[in-house]
Amino acid sequence: MGRKKLKIQRLKDMKARQAKYSKRKRGILKKAKELSILCDVELVLLLSSPTGKPTLFVGQNPNGLYNILQKVSNMPFVEREERHVSLYEDQLQKLKDELIEKSKILRDLKNLEIIVYLNQIEFMEDYLIESLNELRNMKNQLAMEQQSSGRDLEVGLSISMKLFTHFSTICKIPNI
Fold it and tell me: Does the structure show a pLDDT above 70 at 171?
């Protein structure tokens, strides 16, 4: 018997969310360790549980955190943004596909010669209004989330620098 495909969406129940986090955290930490060993890469993984408890994983190199933070801090902001993996790529692709589908429907609806009944026009009008409202709402939501993620990135970099300072004092790494 195979596994059931899990729909990826936020779990509403806090206990279920914590249990899922705990199981998946073990898996991602195992994968991170394997990647670090197999590919000989410097790897740092920082997670925060649903309850707010942080987990820090540093790969094989004990100075990995320092090295990665040093590289990131020396990187120009524009390059950091380009390398930033967008969390919204899937949503963007979904919206593009939906736009293509809606455009096709609009092209079909432009053929006014096939309209025979008033209810066809009413359906077309309702469909267009509903579609436009949905697209506007999605666009506004994505714009707000992207603005928020930009702020989160700045906060994350600030936290990274604080971690760097903290760990450099613990590990007695000289400041550069």
Answer: no
Scored b (16 or more CB within 10 A) or e, 12-42 reads: eeeeeeeeebeeeeeeeeeebeeebeeeeeb
Q: CA 36 from chain center: how many Å?
A: 22
Average pLDDT over residues 100-119: 74
**Six-digit token pair at 132?**
């436009």
Contact in structure between 135 and 44 (CB atoms under 8 Å): no
pTM: 0.45
Q: What sign results for the dihedral spanned by CA atoms 110, 111, 112, 114?
A: negative
In the block, tokens 């820090």 appear at 56
As given in the structure block, the two tokens for residue 14 are: 């806090």
**Which amino acid type is present at position 84?**
H
**Average pLDDT of the chain, as a whole number:** 77
